[in-house]
Structures are given as structure tokens and as C-alpha cells.
């Protein structure tokens, strides 16, 4: 009655079903891992953003690599901006996805070390891409800056190519080691995204807080893949029963036809 399962068509269908089940289970497990990773990241970011600011030198120092736990932590620094060595970071977007620059200004601490401060976004409104844009001046004199600590940018982590031969005072990536070589001074590892004081005239445009990753979507995808995996054998059984029923009906019809007396 089930000898049709040995046919080429049904053997192929059964093998495909057997391959789909573990594949869908693995995809569900991968989505669950992504859910756990995103949930952990959201918790770290939330904890860092809600923590009280601490002096920046408690978390970083020259040559230090900012860790995942230190990222986004609120820090303060006392010193003065050095606009003579200011640079802009190319191909950066604002909250409206407009392309422009990030303004990276060295901040000289009271002990002489330098902290890189990302003061925010400005539009690319210069006469050309090679011309240095006009940048609003930061507050002068000795001030206290507050911001979010960030790790050095790399091509591997950001996907941004570190292009060479750029116009003067323009860079692609914010990297404290590279800036230390350019400036010839001790530069604290990582950089700070400024949150206070707010700029006059709202420019440069301060960079907004990082958003939460949609971890719930990965959880839903995991459940979805596991439901698909459970549905494959159910669907296979339904198809087998339908095929058996159709074959029985066809056989019964043939038997009835053969048993009817011939008419003259």
C-alpha cells in the first residue's frame, strides 16, 4: 500500500524533507543566539548611558583599547579645544541621512594629554570635496566637556575603507593611534562623542544616542523557523495520506470498471 514511497519522486521528496528539518532547527538556534547577543548589547548600552559621568581618565589612557563594557559610558574631561589641529571625518550622515562630515577636535586636558572629541555633524557645503569646510568654533578657554566614550574605529568593525591620499585635514576613520602619530602627543585611547555643552546655533549637530537593536524580531524568527521545522513532517504525512487515498480511489475505480459486465 505504501510502495509508492520507493518511487524516485517520493524518495527525493523525503530526502528534501529530512534535510530541511535540521537546517531549519539550526537557523532557529542562530536567530536565538542573535536575540541573546542583541539583548545583552541593549542592556550594556542602557546601563552605560544611565550611569553617572566619570572623569575620562578613569576609563581610558594613551594606547588603551576601549572595551565593550566601557563603550557609551558617560565621561567628563576638563581642558581646552585645539582647533588648529582640528580635522573632519568624511562621508558621515546625520539623523536625516544627509551626507556631510563629523568634526573631530583635539581636546587638551589639564595634564597635557589629548582627548579626541567628536563635536558633531556639519553639512558638506564647501565649494568642493577637497576644500576644508567652514566649521563653527567651539567654546574657548578652560571648559568641561561631557560625552559618550567610544572605541577607535577600524575598517573591520565599521566597513569604512581607510582611504589614503585624502585632502589635508580630512580622514575616514577616528583612530587615536593614528591621531597620536599625526599630533606627536599622547592621545587617550578611543574618542568621545560630545553631548555637552551644546553648540551655539545648534551646529555642529550633536550626534544622537544609540538606538536599541530589535532583539524581539530575532526571537520571533527563531520561533518561526522551529515551527517550520515541526511543520515539515506534518506536511509530509499529509501528502503521504493524500497520495495513498488517491491511489486507493483509482484502484477501486479500476476494479469496478473491470467487474462490470460487457454490453453487447
What distance separates the N and C termini? 36 Å
> Level of helix content?
25-40%
Beta content comes to 15-25%
| Individual helix count | 4
One letter per element, helices H and strands E, the order comes to: HEEEEEEHEHEH
Number of strands: 8
Question: What is the general shape?
Answer: elongated
Mean pLDDT: 90
Query: What class, by secondary structure content?
Result: alpha/beta
List key phrases describing it.
alpha/beta; 264 residues; single chain; five-stranded mixed β-barrel
Tell me what you see in this structure.
The chain is α/β, with parallel strands linked by helices and 264 residues long. It contains four helices and eight strands, in the order αββββββαβαβα. Strands 2-4-5-8-6 form a five-stranded mixed beta barrel. A hairpin with a 5-residue loop joins β3 and β4. 22% of the residues are buried. The mean pLDDT is 90.
Write the layout of secondary structure elements.
Elements: H1 8-50, E1 54-55, E2 74-81, E3 87-93, E4 99-109, E5 114-123, E6 143-150, H2 155-158, E7 170-171, H3 176-183, E8 191-196, H4 215-259
Parallel strand pairs: 1-2, 3-7, 5-8
Antiparallel strand pairs: 2-4, 2-6, 3-4, 4-5, 6-8
Helix pairs in contact: 1-4
Kindly summarize this structure in a few lines:
The chain is of the alpha/beta class and 264 residues long. The chain is built from four helices and eight strands.
